[in-house]
Structure prediction request, 688 residues.
Amino acid sequence: MSDFVKVNRDGDVAVVIIDNPPVNALSFHVREPLMQALVELRDDSSVAAIVIACAGRTFVAGADITEFGKPVQQPDLRAIVATLEAIAKPTIAAIHGTALGGGLELALGCHFRVADADAKLGLPEVKLGLLPGGGGTVRLPRLVGAVKALGVIVSGVPIAATEAHAAGLVDAVFEGDLTAHAVNFGREIARKGGPFTPVRDRDDDLRQTDLAAFDATAADLAKKARGLEAPIACALSVRNAVTLPFDAALAAERALFVKLVASDQSRAQRHLFFAEREAAKLPAKDIVKRRISRVGVIGAGTMGGGIAMAFANGGYPVTLLETNREALQRGLGTIDKNYAVSVSRGSLTEDAKRQRLAQFKGSTDYADLADCDLIVEAVFEDMAVKKEVFGRLEAVARPGAILATNTSYLDINEIAGSTSRPQDVLGLHFFSPANVMKLLEIVRADKTAPDALATVVDLARRIGKVAVVVGVCHGFVGNRMLAARGSESEALLLEGATPRQIDQAFTDFGWPMGPFQMGDLAGLDIGWRNRKARGQTAVIADTLCEQGRFGQKTGKGFYLYENGSRTPVPDPEVKALIRDKASEKGIAPRAISAEEIIERTLYPLINEGAKILEEGIAARASDIDVVWVNGYGFPVGKGGPLFWAGLEGAARIVERLDHWHQRTGKDVFRVAPLLERMAETGSWEAEA
Ligand code: 3H9
Prediction:
C-alpha cells in the first residue's frame, strides 16, 4: 500500500510492516500510510488481530528527529497512538532491535508487546533535551510503576527485553522468527477473546504509588541535572501520570514537549546528535579498510593501560608491552583492579571480567608486536623517546600495520617522517581515563594513507568511541583551545577572582567542574612541563608546582585536599600567593562578575576554534563541538563552543574580543577572520 508501510495477511492476523531504513523513524511518509492501514484493519471484520512489526535491523527507533522545529504534519504520533489504542481487537507490537522514543510509544499504544530476546526498549528523548511526547511518560508508568518509569525516562538508557519482561513492559520474549511468534501470540489471544484493556486504563497499581518516595527520587535526579530542563520536565510529567487523570496528564505532557522542542537546550542536543554521526564520516567513500585482529599497546602506565582496556572491552586481543617485567606486572595489576571495581559496582560480571582479562598478553619484547595490525604507543611525551619507539616498531611491525601515537601535543608529521612508512602513521589521542572517556581525536598526518584513516575511524566506533578526525598542530583541536582558556583563567586570578569563584562560574554554566578543580584532578605538573618545553609561563600555576603542589595527588594544588579527600577546600596560602603575584605586577584587585569570567575564558576559546577551522585542522564546526562535549565536559545543553557562539551572537563575541584586544593588546583576544564572517553571515560554513 506504500513503500514505507505494507500489510501482510497470515490467516485472520494482519501484520503491518514499517519499512523506513535505516532505523524506521516515524517520518511523515510513514505516519500517513500507517494511520490509513490501522483504520482499514480496524474496520475489516475478517481481521482478528493486528501485529505491528518492522523490516530491517530494528523496530521503530523514534520520531524523525529531522522534523523537529518544523510545522507538524498530521497525523502526528499522538493521533496514531490514540487510534491504535481505541481498536477493540488485540494489537501486538513485535519488537526487534531497538524500540526507542516514539517507537516505544507506538508499542505502548498496543494492547501487547512481544520482543526478540536481543531487543532493547527505551525512551531516550531526554538525551535530545526532550521528554517523550507521544504519551510515553503517561503510559509507561501504568505498566512498570512510576519509580521504575522515572528511572528509564530520566536516564534515557534502554533496558533489555528480559528486564522489560520482568518489569511488565513486555508480555513475552521469543527467540527465532519474531513475526511468526507474534502472529501466533495474536491468534491465540484473539481466540481466547477480550475485552482487551488499553494501557491508558491500566492504572490500578499507579494509584498505589508512594509519592513521597517518588519525590525523593525525583529530587535526587534533579540535583544531577546541572541546569538541564529536560530531566526535570520528564520527572514532572511522570508525576502527573500519577496525580492527574489520563487525558489531563497527556495534555500536560504535550505542553511540556512543545516548550522543550523549541528550547535552545534541545536544539543544542539535537545538533550534537547529528554532529557526532557526521564527525565519523570521511570525504572518501568506499575505501577498503585494513583488517584489525590484534592490537599492540606500548606502555602500561595510566594511559597505556586505559587504551589497552578500551580495545579489550571492544573485543580485541591486546599485546601490552613494557620495558621490564616489574612495570608490566604493575600495569596488568592495575587493569585487574580496575575490572574488579567494575564487578563490585555491578557493571561487569565475574565472567565478563575473566573474558576481558583473557584478551591481554603481556610482553617486554618488541618482537611480540609482530602479529599486531595496529600498534599504539603511549610512552613518555618526548619527541626523542617517541622517535626511538617508532624506530624499533619499524623493525618488527608487519607491513601494513598501522602505527599510532597517543601524543597530546607533538608533531606527528615529524614522527611519521622519521619512519620509512609515513603512510601507516597517525595519531590516536585518547582522553584519560581512556577506557571511560568517549572522545578519540584521530590525527591525520600529511602522509597518512586514506585506508589507514578509514580503518581507525571504523575501529573507534567498534570500541564505542566518538571519533573526530583532526589535523596536526600543537595540541590538536581540544588541547589547543584549552590553552586559550587557561591563559585567561590565570589572568582573572591576578585581577581579583578566586579559584573558587571561577570554578563556581563554570559549574553554574553547566560544566562538571571548573578549570582549577580540573587542573588539580589532572595534575598541575603536566601543564607545567609542557609550558617549560615551550618557554611559556603561568605565574600562579608555575609557583604552585615549584612548591610541589601538583593537585590532588600531592594533597595540595589550587585547593587543599585534606586527608586524601577529593573535596577541594580553598587555601588561604594560595589566596596570599595570588595577591603577592598581583601586587608584584602592580595589578590592583577588583570585583569580577561571573559573566566576565565566562566571556573572558570562553570567547577566546571560540576564537581559537575559528582559527582551527580556518586552518582546516577540523573539517567542520560541529566536529569541534563534538570534541569539547565528549572530551572536556562542555555542557551538552549549550551544544559545544561553536554552537554556543551562535546562541551568544557571534557579533557580540567579536565586539567583546576586539574591545579587550584594543585595551590589553593581548593576542588571545585577536579576532579570527572566520569568527568575523560568522558574525556577518550567521554560519560557520564557507560560502559556496
Ligand atoms: C522521539 O521519538 C520523540 C517522541 O517522543 C515524540 C514525538 C512527538 N530520526 O545512530 P546511527 C539516523 S525523539 C532521524 O548511526 P546505529 C542517523 O542520523 C527520538 N534520523 O545507527 C544516521 O543517519 P546518517 C527518540 C535518525 O545503528 C542513521 O539514522 N529516539 C534517527 O549506530 C543511522 O543512525 C532516539 O533518540 C531518528 N530518530 O544506531 C533514537 N535515528 O547515516 C536515536 C537515527 O545519515 N537513534 N537516525 O548519519 C539512535 O539512538 C541510533 O540511531 C540507533 C541506531 C540506536 C537507533
